[in-house]
Amino acid sequence: MKTRREWLTGGGSLLGAAASAFASQKRGGRRPRILLRGSWQSVNIGDIGHTPGALSLLNKHFPDAEVTLWPGRLDQASRNLLTQNYPDLKIVEGAVGTDGRPTPELARAWAETGLYLSGSGSGFPASAHAVAFHKATGKPVGVFGVSTDPISGIGEGREPEGGTLRELRTKALRLPPGHLPADLRYIIDRAAFFFCRDTISRDYLRAQKIRTPILEFGPDTQLGMHIRDDAKGLAYLKVSGLEEGRFICVIPRLRYTPYYRIYGTARTPADDIRDAINSRTTEADHAKLREMIISYVKNTGNRVLACPEMTYQVELAKAVLVDPLPDAIRKNVVWRDSFWLPDEAASIYARAQAVISVECHSPLIALCNGTPAMYVRQPTDTCKGQMYRDFGAERWIFEIEETGGDELWSRVAEIVKDPPKARARVRSILSGIEDRQKRMVAAVRAAF
Q1: pTM for the complete prediction?
Q2: Helical segments of 1-154, H only
């Protein structure tokens, strides 16, 4: 039986080529190759949009690089979105066994790449695969814009009800230095760079005395996505009677996403906890949004688009945003009755007066397209929402349990009253974000 060293370097194996292939890249023998781990799921336009965001940033600031995507759950529509907009992109499928060995196609990608780059997500998605890659190849691993929330969630030592961002920061920084799980500490310590998409995650990892040489704030890669499907977007606006600059978009959310219903998997005791929290909070949360919608329609006469960020929110939007409205208001509200991809959503958000969302990523898509956007954060939605304060949108983020319909409408009214001022604020926010994005890609370049 081969030793680990023999498996990695001997016998002409696929991974045996890793050291010489990496050395060739270092000598300039070929273009730098990046293995991008991302596309975590296709039921959320935010998770879909992370990948084109990362690709656009790499194409813009590191055009010499060749990128291969190793996706999580990539359905055909999401795959088509990527291949049509990034024709040079390669996509590799594969899995890692319990022994840490990749399947053959994936092994070839590991041998050929010079850097494993983990895309944006919550909790360093697929971190075990980054560990396996690093142990097998000895090549660098880097991380783009993730959150590491040690408080929220369900499980031992976790708080199912979550908390405000202020509460999460305080609790995270009180944890003992050895709190971070050993497997995460192993790979983060050895990462060439680790960009957190919020400063709560960054400061928690600093308090845990992580040793990666670069541990900094780096925005969610959704903010790099610049693709739009204007043909679909304009067609939808026309058929729906929505006029550019005279409507807002509103996106609902349950405090916990019902993944067992989305994927048709067996219900677990943790799902009972999640469903109980959803049942207790859904009406109160969305009553505040309805109050804001009513004020907007009464004061402007404009229209409202109730639309989804996740698949399950198509029906949720109708149930909690549209149907309970008074008849006189409901006639000005359009219900989006189908899911969409982020490029169509971007086209519509770009033409909205504002986007108001209980989901985190639709406002990012809107901002990236120049549209003012507000994030109404639920306490269960991890610490990632801190990013809004970090990149300068503190006036447009709200804790849902600390706000009401009146305050939400007052902020929308500011945007309605002076659209040029609001859009100038967006441009200022994006300028700061771009500086951080350049820093992120500079770290990628330096890893080669």
Answers
A1: 0.93
A2: 4-9, 18-26, 45-61, 76-85, 104-112, 127-137
